Amino acid sequence: xxxxxxxxxxxxxxxxxxxxxxxxxxxxxxxxxxxxxxxxxxxxxxxxxxxxxxxxxxxxxxxxxxxxxxxxxxxxxxxxxxxxxxxxxxxxxxxxxxxxxxxxxxxxxxxxxxxxxxxxxxxxxxxxxxxxxxxxxxxxxxxxxxxxxxxxxxxxxxxxxxxxxxxxxxxxxxxxxxx
Length: 179
Description:
Elements: E1 2-6, H1 15-28, E2 35-39, H2 45-52, E3 57-59, H3 66-71, E4 74-77, H4 86-93, E5 98-101, H5 107-113, E6 116-119, H6 125-141, H7 143-146, H8 149-158, H9 161-175
Parallel strand pairs: 1-2, 1-4, 2-3, 4-5, 5-6
């Protein structure tokens, strides 16, 4: 399985959980093969490099993410304090299911498309890693449930600029003091 994570290397993205999850999956031989690629840069990069050792492939920021989404079988970003997460939508639109944190940036797109699993990321890193591993193995075992043409189309429709413009026009009209 090829897993992708993308973001700024800052504490709230929880790339440390990605590295620990990768390490445990390898130790348990839970998947036939596993490559985990993390793309990004930022203040925590050196810290992640120390933890990652040879467990994950670290890639600096890139100009185009599309080929990386299309390379991956799964996108994982267990971050907290996230608003709407565009990387989750991009991933699904490129045919790659996602795993994100409950109540964070992935919630809306997963609930609207079914293109992934939301996991609880409790204070205990051990429990968080266990939850992420369980979701990875679930998607691996039932891939077509979490990624198919219908799911991709739902994500594309969600980001349709004409639909978004119409929704904004209605919102503005309803909230305008002149209406």
